[in-house]
Amino acid sequence: MTVLAQPRTYEVRTFGCQMNVHDSERLSGSLEAAGYVRADGGVADVVVINTCAVRENADNKLYGTLGHLASTKREHEGMQIAVGGCLAQKDKSVILDKAPWVDVVFGTHNMGSLPSLLERARHNDEAQIEILESLEIFPSTLPTRRDSTHSGWVSISVGCNNTCTFCIVPSLRGKEKDRRPGDILSEIGMLVADGAIEVTLLGQNVNSYGVEFGDRLAFGKLLRAAGEIEGLERVRFTSPHPAAFTDDVIDAMAETSNVMPQLHMPLQSGSDRILKAMRRSYRSEKFLGILDRVRAKMPHAAISTDIIVGFPGETEEDFAETLRVVEQARFASAYTFQYSIRPGTPAATLPDQVPKEVVQERYERLIELQERISAEENQKLVGRTVEVLVATSEGRRDVERGRLSGRAEDNRLVHFEVPEGSQIPRPGDVVTVEVIRAAPHFLIAAPAGAELPVRRTRAGDAWDRAEAESCAVPATPVDAAGRVSLGLPTIGLPTIGLHSTAS
Fold this sequence. Notes:
Keywords: 4Fe-4S, Cytoplasm, Iron, Iron-sulfur, Metal-binding, S-adenosyl-L-methionine, Transferase, tRNA processing. The chain contains 15 helices and 22 strands. With about 500 residues, it is of the alpha/beta class. It folds into three domains: about 130 residues, Methylthiotransferase, N-terminal domain (Rossmann fold, 3-Layer(aba) Sandwich), CATH 3.40.50; about 240 residues, Alpha-Beta Horseshoe (pyruvate-formate lyase- activating enzyme); about 70 residues, CATH 2.40.50. The strands form six sheets. A six-stranded parallel beta sheet has the order 3-2-4-5-6-7, sandwiched between helices. A five-stranded mixed beta barrel has the order 16-17-18-20-19. The two termini are about 20 Å apart. The relative contact order is 0.10.
């Protein structure tokens, strides 16, 4: 009698942006299609690190993580470590020079190769590196292992045609490549059929979608088409570029009921002089004009942004312009970054690099200003009724205080308590609550009456199914004949018995 051994387990660790989070779902899906299973505690047989090259400490974070994994690998026979993503695309063989215990290095253009690279590394007993200079297949054609049953990411494009002097992304992800609208809408439809009621459209410059096939209005049309998908309740997108943000997109947002009143619009700097040095093809007046037009059509829209402090040559006058624009823009929140040199970018060699202590002091002033504005904007919502899409968990304090959390339609984080005797909502259900208190980063809400109004959704049903499946124990082991191939290589599962074979 032949008995199959346990399949190999995996863990994916994600550093970086939403694009990386979505890529990690694709990596997980490819591994599971090849026969791996997600590690449930303990040490995984395969650890995949999906890297970022944008943040200041990206290198330190990667090599620090790899240093910790080295000792784990020595104690766990057969363990493999794979490094992919933007930093892998940039550093290529440098990773193996610094961390020779890594088994696989792959780039942003060949995520689907991961299972075969891992198998090749095991079979040959040597590290494998494969970095393609152009996209192999569009990532969304790969299978997905989603982390959320109620929400999903959908890439509409990859790459970037801009030349911002601080950004290394174009050289790592290549020129923009757009998916066909039918393929995008088909994927959204499949997510909805699987229980999702919310999708976020992803692109490096999401609103320049259509440039590859010559349709400047393609993104607005895509938003309107998504509004026709039955069962899809919430549509979001990130991140648009101000230079390409047109009124037809604003109209599509305002006139499409399931497109949420939320916009993430990167400012980067409020100084026109610095924007020019960054090669950002807009100026502060145009940026503020976009916000005015958005709010004229959607008065309750929550607008967030990205800001870089201390770009080379930034003077105190330039920084004062950033503070002025932030005060006028009234952002709900802002992702603020201290400029750091990224080798390979034009800004890395610019003169007049701002001293670290100056950057830190300006950064702290910007944080203080935005915290005040966020608190004031959130305070305006006290007394308002909001619909909250319940999430699995948004932090430890929820557990400690016996409350649940989720996102309002404008994407603000809302914590709420469930009164005794009320129906307990599932992740993916929608509750109606009244905001009773505000803080800079979240809202506190409660039901208006004695019971919590809960709308049970298809997404909540999907969460129930996923929970049931995760607790189920298969009666017999699944072998290669019972798995769906999807055209991907499967890992070799060693057999135990009279006719055992080596993998």
